[in-house]
Amino acid sequence: MAKWRNHTQHHIVGDEIEVNPLFSRSGEDSIPRFRLSQDGLLPETAYQIIHDELTLDGNARLNLATFVGTWMEPQARALYAEAADKNMIDKDEYPQTAAIEDRCIHIMADLWNVPNPDDVIGVSTTGSSEACMLGGLVLKRRWQALRKSKGLATDRPNIVFSSAVQVVWEKFANYFEVEPRYVNVSPDRPNLTPEGVLEAVDENTIGVVPVLGVTYTGVYEPVADIAAALDQLERQTGLDIPIHVDAASGGFVAPFLQKDLLWDFRLPRVHSINASGHKYGLVYPGIGWALWRDKSLVPEDLIFEVSYLGGNMPTFGLNFSRPGAQVLLQYYNFLRLGWEGYYQVQKACQNVAHFLAHRIGQMKMFDLLTDGSDIPVFAWKLSSDASDLWDLHDLSHVLHERGWQVPAYPLPASMEDTTIMRVVVRNSFSMDLAHLFLEDLIRAVDHLQSLTHPFPDQIRQTKPFHH
Question: Do 370 and 328 share a structural domain?
Answer without folding.
Answer: no
